[in-house]
Every structure is written in structure tokens, then in C-alpha cells.
Design a protein that fits this description.
heterodimer, A: alpha/beta, Glutathione S-transferase Yfyf (Class Pi), Chain A, domain 2, 2 domains, 4-stranded parallel sheet, 13 helices, globular, B: about 475 residues, 4-stranded mixed sheet, binds iron/sulfur cluster
């Protein structure tokens, strides 16, 4: 292990590959689409290889490297042109960027894995550092909180980009969370294998979100959002939710790209022909 | 301490339900994290200091055999007796033999995690020798009949009130919750014992090969007493504690105290280089250093796993760990707890017994971020998980219990996963099916129950991103790739 070298960013490319990730594909496709459209809005074409499935992180983290490698090998072959690969997730991005080289060390694909790793960018980082986007906020005043995922922070080393996107939104106030950089307890298989500890962690995270005063929780990572959002929704229902007339409803949650798109396009944007999501509890679920 | 997955499940469940414990831990961990972060923020470049520590320890470990030899030579030339112990049994016997030879009935101890590893106190008790802990935290857990629950703060799981009750019950003194009064009481008890003890036993923070110096970092002065008052001092260390040069101690000490307690330097810093010399007024007549292997050399044999041995036992990874800070140290049933314990224990005890600990992490990486010697704990956890189910074929025969965690059921799950994810058409079909089934997933089924006890299950979308992007990106992709290869 060596001290990290500061990343150098390329200039704006003509086109990029988009690696959607299986979680976004399955649970938050609207946010994936929003991420794509926000890139296209900057005049960059987006290629979405239809052969993509999953980066392989689930078996990799469980020790099943043979299975992870078999699937990762297929993903490696999806990006033949020398273009940036943009991933709307710190965790899956880190799998491609940080773990693929190790996973393929000593394999025929080692060189390809290294080459791919150097082209992988987390979406918000890419928006800020490469596309240098300027966002004009068209939404109403709103208080939000942001949950940075662990792999985004500590493996992708992306700390400021999501916050700096949010800072551009004039009427959005970003409130701090207590223990902001502490893990939410997802951890993939951890969330069921060590379900008890995982639940204790997400309970604390929910408390922090609720105490922050934010109306909406945002994150770049689908895994964290499923975890925190699922727990927030449950709390909301258990406490009677907004159905209780005297009570204010608890915070809702949403993936960051979808939120940004809604703000810059002036609210809820029907996209891709499907109903899109509002900022209500469980709003992160594609309808 | 029963080390296995079932026991761990029971103990952590009990810890999570234990409200006073949760409160004590939360308070202590929040405070100590804050102190550590504040100290690091005052350094010109805290992270650079961590990488310096990393480089020093990497270099030291790379030259370990030579350094150990040099250390022995240097120490011996100054009259410190060096003993090599392959197992904890050997180490215990060495200590007992010295005690017996000197007719010692009472041993007074400074903090030493190696002595915990040896279960030295029990062993000595079995040979009619009393061992009394002199570090305040260790003193408290010894009174409570418990092992330490933290590397640096052994009694961190207890509140002030709990300690007050303990002192009252065990020492028969008037009940007080006043910290000053409690500390004074402990001091009074210990001072007396220092006079009577025939031997002091301590750990070692660093041993410097070039000068033959044993360095001991502490805050209470008990370490100094242990190394100067009794006629015999026995220091215990693992083979990994040796560093080449004296000037390397400075960054390591800064990093150690900053990481452990947020202090710029510890209150006491002891450098020991010989027994009492002729003409000197104090100091022990005999000084011994016991160097323990206990499985470390097999860890050493694997270059990647070797990084485990870089640890300087600062405890920072425990304090920042979202798991440790919720279940405390006892739930692990290990000598070394928290993140460092999760990588060290499976290697020392073997994967059959300790492999489950490698799974007790979200791989959040907070430990790696704060570690003063930058041990890549998440990477090592991943390695141990893999060795548990898909062991490295030949050559690495050093990891005990490799392959022991393989389960047919899990292997089948991942084989199935692979089949689906290697066939995009099948994957897309599955995603679609999930979209239909999303609302009706059986919440009470197997692992989903663990999820849905306090969380709603996520609902799969009707149309996947593949579906939403299918027209334009397919056409585009084909065009782009064609134009590239022209
Ligand atoms: S692993 Fe690192 S952070 Fe943890 S106790 Fe050892 S030196 Fe400290």
C-alpha cells in the first residue's frame, strides 16, 4: 500500500461509457436515467453497453473471488474504446477502480483491468471535475442532508463532489448529519449476516437524519439508500406517518442524480416514459 | 472465552441489548475519536505522519530476522537477558521459572496485551504466584474478574458508577463516585503492593535494535514503578515490536499517543536499556525480555498478511469502528478486539475458530483511515474471507484453517449468481421478474427476515435502466465501436 496519488482529470470527452450498476438498474433506474441525461445535457454522448450486469462486488466481498472474477471478466470487455467509464455509485465504482486490478493480478486480463481502473469515475466527481457543470436551481426551498457512502469516501476518495453539486443549488440548504461519515450498516451481505449489528447502525443513522431537520436524505449509493430509506420508511409507518394529522412527516430520501435533475429541470420531470418519483417517503422507489 | 460464530452471535446480541454498555461505549468512543481527530488536525499533515509510520514498520518487518538478532546482541551486551518463546506456554514457563528462582510470591504488572494473550495471571496463580494489575484500567477489570475490553482503555465498558460499586464491594472502602478519590484509593492499594512485589512485568511498545532500547509508553507512572521498584523486571513482547533505529521512535510515538488518546506525548515515556549498574541507586537487579512468537512467524510468511504485524496497538481502529463502538470488546471473545482483532485472531486461532470475525465488518474502511501505520484492514478482511472459502492453492500453507468456512449452500448461491450475471439476457429477465415480484417478496423468508425486522424491503422497478436506455445506447454503442475500429 502506498500513499494515494492525487487524481488527474481528463478534459471533457466526446463520449463516455455509463456503467449503471445492478442496484440502480433494479431499484433506481430513474436515477440512472437522470445521471445519463445530466451528462448528455453537457454535450457528451453516453454509451450504455447492454451487456453489463454486475461489477461482482457481492461475491467478491464474501470471498467468492472465482465467481466474482468470472462476471468481472465479462464487464471488462464492455468498454473497448478509450473513454471514461462513469459509475453512479462510489461502491461499484470502487470495485472497478480499486479492486479489479487486484482481482485480476496474475491473470491474462491484468493489463485490461489496470487500464479500465484508470478510466473509471464516480458520477458526481465526473460532473464536477471533468464536466465542470453549472447548475441553476429551479426548485422550491428545501432542507436536505447528504449521506456519503464509505466506499465513495475511502476507496474512490470522493469527498467534496456531491456536496459541491448541492452547494450550487441556490434554494437547497444542506444540513449536517451527526457522525456524517460513519457507515450506515449496509455492507451488502453484512446487513443480513450480521443483521443485528446492521440494524443498530442504521437505527443510529436514522436518528441522525431525523434530528438533522432535513426533509430529504440524498446519497450516491443505492445500497446505503435502500438501507437507510427502508429503515426511515419503516419508522415512519410505525409512528403513524403523515396520516397522523397533527404530526409532521419524517424525512424522505432519493438518489442524488435524480434529485439534481429534478432541481435543474424545475421539479418532477417525467423521464423515459415512466412515472417518475416525487419527494415523499419511499420516493426513491421507482413507481 | 469460547471463540466461535454462535457464541459471537449470542454475545453481540446481548451487548446490543445492554443499554448501560451502549451508553458507556457511545460516550467514551465519541470523546476519544474527537481527541484523536483534533490532535491529527493540528499536525501539519497528519496523513503524511501515518504514511511515515507505515514506511517505518514496513521496513522494520522486512528486516525482522536481522533486527531481532541485533536487538538480542545489544540487549545481552548490556546485561538484559533475552528469552525466546515459541508458544504462550513457553512464555509462561519462562516467566514462572524466573519468579520461582527469585522466590517471588507477588508480581506487579504494567499493561501488557501479550500477557493477556498468554493468560499469564491465571498461569501464575496456578503456580502459587499472585499477579496484580497496576494499570488503573487493568486493575479495575481484574477486580471485576473480566478481561480488558479495549486495547488502551481496558475498563471502557464500565461507567464511573459501576466502578464505584466495584471498589466499594471488592476493596471494602466507603462508597464514592469521586474520580479523584477512587484514583487515590487505587494508588494506596497499589503503592503497598509495589513495596512487596518481587517482580514487575510489563509490555513493550517498541524495541530499538540499533541501541538495544526497550520503550514503554504509559500515563500513570505504574509502568515506571514496575520497571524500577521490584528487584526483577520482565518485559514481554511479540516478535513484531522491533524497529531498526532510535530516531524512528519519534514519529511512531507521536502517532501512537495522538491516535490512542489524542495526547501530544504520553505522561510517562520509559526507555530501558540495562539493569541497575554498579553505583546506581535504583533500578532492578535483573531485567529480562521475553520475545513471543505464538503464530506470528506464520503470519509473517505471507507478505500480504504480514501487514497485520505492523500494528502498534493504539486502539484507534476500535474507537472509530461502527461495530466495536456498538458491541464493545467482550463480545468478540478474543484477546485483541475490534478491527485489528478481526484480522489478527483468525490468523492466530485459525479460520475454523476465528474466521467468522472477518465477516463482522461492513468494509467501511474507517479503521484504515485512522490507523497510524496504515494497515489495510479491509483488504486483509477480504483476503481472510476468501481464504475461508476459496483458499490459495499451494505455497501458502501457513494460514490455519484455510477453506474451513466453505459451505455448500453459499457456494451454490454464488455459482447461481454467476450463471445469471454472466448472461445479460438471463440477467435482464431476472431483473424483470424481480420487478413483477418486487411487491410480494416473502418478508419472513430466511435472510430477508434479518433485513425486514426494522427495514422495508426495497421494491424493484417495473422497467430497468437497461430497458429505459435500450434503444439509443445500443445503436450508439455499435456506431461508436465501429468508428473506433475503422
Ligand atoms: S491496527 Fe492500526 S489503528 Fe488498530 S490498533 Fe493497530 S495500529 Fe492502531
Amino acid at each position: 500500500m502506498h500513499p494515494p496519488v492525487k487524481r488527474e482529470y481528463p478534459s471533457k470527452p466526446e463520449a463516455v461509457y455509463f456503467y449503471g450498476t445492478c442496484l440502480v438498474d433494479t431499484f433506481f433506474p430513474q436515477s440512472g436515467l437522470a445521471a445519463v441525461e445530466l451528462i448528455e445535457r453537457e454535450g457528451v454522448r453516453v454509451i450504455f453497453p447492454q451487456g453489463q450486469t454486475c461489477c461482482g462486488q457481492p461475491p467478491f466481498n464474501s470471498g467468492y473471488h472465482r465467481e466474482a472474477r468470472a462476471v468481472a471478466r465479462e464487464q471488462l470487455a464492455l468498454f473497448p474504446a478509450d473513454l471514461p467509464v462513469v459509475v453512479p455509485s462510489g461502491s461499484c465504482g470502487a470495485m472497478l477502480r480499486v479492486h479489479y486490478p487486484g482481482l485480476f493480478a496474475g491473470e491474462p486480463e491484468a493489463g485490461a483491468a489496470e487500464a479500465l481502473a484508470s478510466r473509471v469515475f464516480e458520477w458526481s466527481d465526473f460532473m464536477v471535475q471533468v464536466l465542470r457543470v453549472k447548475l441553476a436551481d429551479k426548485g422550491p426551498p428545501l432542507k436536505v442532508a447528504y449521506h456519503p457512502s464509505c466506499h465513495m469516501l475511502r476507496e474512490m476518495k470522493v469527498r467534496d463532489a456531491p456536496q459541491s453539486l448541492l452547494a450550487q443549488l441556490e434554494r437547497v440548504e444542506v444540513l449536517p448529519l451527526a457522525n456524517q461519515e460513519e457507515c450506515c450498516g449496509f455492507g451488502g451481505a453484512f446487513s443480513v449476516k450480521m443483521g443485528d449489528v446492521s440494524r443498530a447502525m442504521v437505527a443510529d443513522k436514522c436518528r441522525a437524519v431525523r434530528q438533522s431537520g432535513a426533509e430529504l436524505l440524498l446519497s450516491m449509493d443505492a445500497g446505503c439508500l435502500i438501507n437507510i430509506g427502508g429503515a426511515l420508511d419503516r419508522l415512519e409507518r410505525d409512528s403513524g406517518g403523515s396520516a397522523d394529522a397533527g404530526k409532521e412527516s419524517g424525512p424522505s430520501w432519493m438518489p442524488l442524480p435524480l434529485f439534481i435533475q429534478q432541481r435543474v429541470t424545475g421539479g418532477v420531470q417525467p423521464a423515459g416514459g415512466t412515472a417518475s418519483l416525487g419527494a415523499q417517503p419511499g420516493g426513491g422507489h421507482a413507481a | 472465552m469460547q471463540l466461535d460464530a454462535k457464541q459471537f452471535k449470542r454475545d453481540r446480541a446481548a451487548a446490543l441489548e445492554n443499554k448501560p454498555l451502549r451508553r458507556n461505549l457511545e460516550r467514551a468512543m465519541t470523546t476519544i475519536r474527537g481527541r484523536r481527530n483534533e490532535r491529527f488536525s493540528q499536525f501539519v499533515d497528519g496523513e503524511a505522519l501515518q504514511w511515515i509510520g507505515h514506511a517505518i514498520k514496513r521496513n522494520a518487518l522486512a528486516n525482522l530476522p536481522d533486527l531481532l538478532e541485533q536487538l538480542e546482541e545489544q540487549l545481552t551486551s548490556r546485561g538484559i537477558q533475552v528469552h525466546w518463546a515459541e508458544t504462550t506456554g513457553d512464555a509462561n514457563r519462562i516467566v514462572k521459572d524466573i519468579a520461582k528462582r527469585r522466590g517471588v510470591g507477588l508480581v506487579i504488572k504494567g499493561k501488557s496485551m501479550v500477557s493477556e494473550e498468554m493468560e499469564l495471571n491465571d498461569y501464575l496463580a496456578g503456580h502459587g504466584i499472585e499477579a496484580l494489575e497496576a494499570d488503573l484500567g487493568e486493575f479495575i477489570v481484574q477486580l471485576a474478574g473480566e478481561p480488558p475490553s479495549h486495547l488502551v482503555a481496558p475498563a471502557v465498558h464500565l461507567s464511573r458508577q459501576e466502578i464505584a460499586v466495584l471498589f466499594h464491594d471488592e476493596l471494602g472502602e466507603e462508597y464514592t463516585e469521586d474520580i479523584q478519590a477512587m484514583t487515590a484509593l487505587a494508588r494506596r492499594v497499589l503503592r503497598e503492593k509495589f513495596q512487596q512485589a518481587g517482580m514487575g512485568v510489563t509490555g513493550v511498545n517498541f524495541a530499538v535494535a540499533e541501541t538495544g532500547t526497550i520503550a514503554l509508553v504509559e500515563n500513570e507512572g505504574n509502568g515506571r514503578m514496575c520497571t524500577t521498584v521490584p528487584p526483577v523486571h520482565v518485559a514481554l513482547m511479540g516478535i513484531e515490536k522491533v524497529i531498526p533505529r532510535l530516531d524512528e521512535m519519534s514519529p511512531l510515538i507521536r502517532s501512537l499517543t495522538a491516535s490512542a488518546t489524542g495526547q501530544p506525548i504520553s505522561t510517562y515515556f520509559n526507555w530501558l536499556s540495562s539493569p541497575r549498574r554498579p553505583g546506581e541507586k535504583d533500578g532492578p537487579e535483573e531485567v529480562h525480555l521475553v520475545i513471543l512468537d505464538n503464530g506470528r512467524s506464520s503470519i509473517y510468511a505471507d507478505e500480504e498478511l504480514r501487514e497485520t504485524l505492523d500494528c502498534i496497538r493504539c486502539g484507534a481502529c476500535l474507537n472509530i469502528c461502527p461495530v466495536y463502538s456498538r458491541i464493545g470488546g467482550h463480545a468478540y471473545s478474543t484477546v485483541y478486539m475490534g478491527p485489528i482483532g478481526k484480522i489478527l485472531t483468525p490468523q492466530l486461532a485459525g479460520l475454523e475458530k476465528g474466521g467468522h470475525l472477518a465477516g463482522a465488518s461492513t468494509l467501511c474502511g474507517a479503521c484504515y483511515e485512522v490507523c497510524p501505520v496504515k494497515i489495510p484492514i479491509p483488504d486483509l478482511l477480504l483476503r481472510l474471507r476468501r481464504e475461508g472459502v476459496q483458499p490459495t492453492p499451494a505455497g501458502i500453507a501457513t494460514l490455519k484453517g484455510a477453506g474451513a468456512k466453505a459451505s455448500l449452500g453459499e457456494a451454490m448461491v454464488w455459482k447461481g449468481w454467476r450463471v445469471v450475471h454472466n448472461r445479460p439476457a438471463l440477467y435482464k429477465l431476472m431483473t424483470r421478474l424481480l420487478g413483477f415480484a418486487g411487491r410480494t417478496l416473502p418478508k419472513r423468508m430466511g435472510p430477508l427476515r434479518e433485513w425486514s425486522a426494522t427495514r422495508d424491503l426495497p421494491k424493484a422497478a417495473n422497467r430497468s435502466l437497461h430497458h429505459l436506455l435500450r434503444d439509443r445506447s445500443n445503436a450508439w454503442e455499435a456506431g461508436k465501436i465501429r468508428s473506433d475500429s475503422e
